[in-house]
Structures are given as C-alpha cells and as structure tokens.
C-alpha cells in the first residue's frame, strides 16, 4: 500500500508538468497526495472491514469507502465521471477502462491468501466503477504483480503474469521521447510494470515511472506498489514520505500495516 502512496506523492508535481528525465528530487515541497492515494486507502479500508470470502460484501464496502473518503478529500484530481459517481444517489459502474482501477488495487494483494483470491478481489474492487474488460484487466495485472512480488517470485514470473493482459515488448528508452498522457489501463499499466522490471530498487522504479511523462502520479503509484512488494521500502524513503500522508488516509494506513 505504501509503495503506491509514495509513487503517487512523488509523481504528483509532474502529472501536468512532465519531466523526461530520471534526474529530479524524489521529494519536493510541492508534493501531495492525490486521488490515487485516497482511493488506495479506500480499498484498504474496505479490505479491513470485510470478510474477503464474501465478494458481494467486499464490493459494497469498496463502494461505501470510496464514496466516503472521496467526499472527505475533495478536489484531488478525480475524473469527471468518477466525480459524478461519488455524488450519485445510486452509484453504478460506468464502463471505464481508465487506470483508476489499477492505481487503487494494491491493498488486495497484501490481504489475499492465493493468486486466485487476489485476482478475484482485484476484479471486485474494479468493477464497481471500471467494469469495462480493460478496466478489470488493469486491476488484475497490477494486483497479481504485487502479490507475486510479495511472495518472492522472480521478475520473469511477474512479467509472464502481466503479459496475460498486455504486451511488454518495449523499453522505457524506446518510448520515453514520444510517450504521451494516457489514462487508459492499456496505455499506462504496461509502462508502469516495465518501469519496475527495468529497476533494481523502489527509488529507481519511481524515477523510471516518472521519467516517461504522461500520467506521472498514477504510473508511479502502480509501479511503486509492485516495487515496494519486491524490494521493500528503505527507512529514509518511508520517513521522507509519511509526513505527506495525513488525516484518515494515515489512520487507515497505520491500521492496514498493523494487520498486513
């Protein structure tokens, strides 16, 4: 969970001011949590309050916690359709194939007891809003990568899992110059995974993710969630970023790491 939050916070100042370089301060005074962190916390909260064998109950808790926290943390970059979903009297899935399903999914991978359960929880967390097949695919790809990483799987196994959903037939150097802002799962999840695959640490992963530009905070959140499960989080990075996590998001984070 914290890897996603760190990636989000580090990438927050570059989302609309892309940087095509790995040479930037990892922590900047202008950094902040965005909707990515808040929705990750909402999924984590739903995990904490649910019997994870009951997918319908888990879905209901995801809806309730996303709407509750989203309203508590307004104006953090939610998409227009998600904003309407937050305020709707009867919220319904709206067929999104955007990367919101993948950026928020990492907590399920820490709670799941098997890869199959992880993927089922990822699908359930996605389809309450992102019920397009690609919105679900993005969530399953990232959640499975996080689960495998925390189980100590080799990168080849993580790559093989993700290629069930997306081709990973490129390098960051090949795409960096021309990569454009793309909030779809298909246009950002593979890039986040390659940022992890080409790195040897959490910090290098986040620098890789931000260096291609585009939807920097979300790409870094997705990549950071996988990298944290693989490499862990160095104490100095943890201590640098925790002050940016406040209010109920911090409370949920503290509760989540106590259990998982």
Describe the structure.
The chain is mostly helical. It is built from 15 helices and no strands. α7 (115-127) runs antiparallel to α8, α8 (133-150) runs parallel beside α13 and α12 (202-211) runs antiparallel to α13 (216-231). The chain starts with a helix and ends with a helix. The model has no long low-confidence stretch (mean pLDDT 97).
Largest sheet: none
What structural class do helix, strand and pairing data support? Answer: mainly alpha
The residue ranges in which pLDDT falls below 50 over 5 or more consecutive positions are none
Number of strands: 0
Computed CA radius of gyration, to the nearest angstrom: 16 Å
| Secondary-structure element series | HHHHHHHHHHHHHHH
Helix content: 55-70%
Instruction: Count the DSSP helices.
Output: 15
Mean pLDDT: 97
Global shape: globular
| Assembly state of the chains shown | single chain
Ends distance = 10 Å
Structure, briefly:
This protein is mainly α. It is built from 15 helices and no strands.
